[in-house]
Amino acid sequence: MARAKKKNLAKKRSSPAGRIAREQPIAPEPNRLLKVWRRVLERRLRTRLRAPVAVEVHDNTHTMLTFQRHRALWRLRLHHMFLAAPDEVIHALADYVRNGDAEASAQLDKFIERNKIYIRRVSPAQMRKRLRMEPVGQHHDLGRIFERLNERYFRGRIDAAITFGPAPRVTRPRKSIKMGSYSADSRVIRIHPALDQPVVPRYFVEWIVFHEMLHNVYRTRRGEDGRRCIHPPEFLEHEKRFHDYSRAQAWEMENLDLLLRARVSA
Prior knowledge:
SprT-like family protein
């Protein structure tokens, strides 16, 4: 019986299938590798945060990291560039998540800048196709406002789209409001829908749109302290050229509570 087993074993080893299996090992599936790297990253962060951590890896083109805490659990959504990040970056990530540390934030920005080659490139036009564009409100037409400001102040050179942003989900009274934003990736200006009220004067909406259009001219840069500078001095000086600058500022100071209390329907 022993000789028969040995003979059969020899045949199995000399079979073509056996040779192929030894010469060309089957590579692990990409999804399996991703799970392994993700679990390693979770352990690295768990050690530094001293709390349970759940990581979701994505391939976004704009927001590289977001996080929230649910009781004792930290939930992080990270771009895949963080999977093999060095220890100092993981340490900075933990500090930023735990304390909102400014130095850690600057270090993360530098890491993302150095690794932007791994960010999938999508043209602004492609990004806009994914967005719901609604420039015409019930009381203000952002498209017309944008076109007139573009001709008056920028000779039509601002290549961007504009829309009212989605109605935010707010259950409690707002303490602050972000009236506008500009995405350099998609070149889209979003205006808070709370501004689409009959009591909000047109010149104030124009000022907010003008402010966001300036972000197309003056890009975000870093100051001497390494922090991001969104509104450099030349930006602020240029903003004063708006024809109703002082009037718009005065209206904001007097009516901010009105905007904070505004109820916006989805």
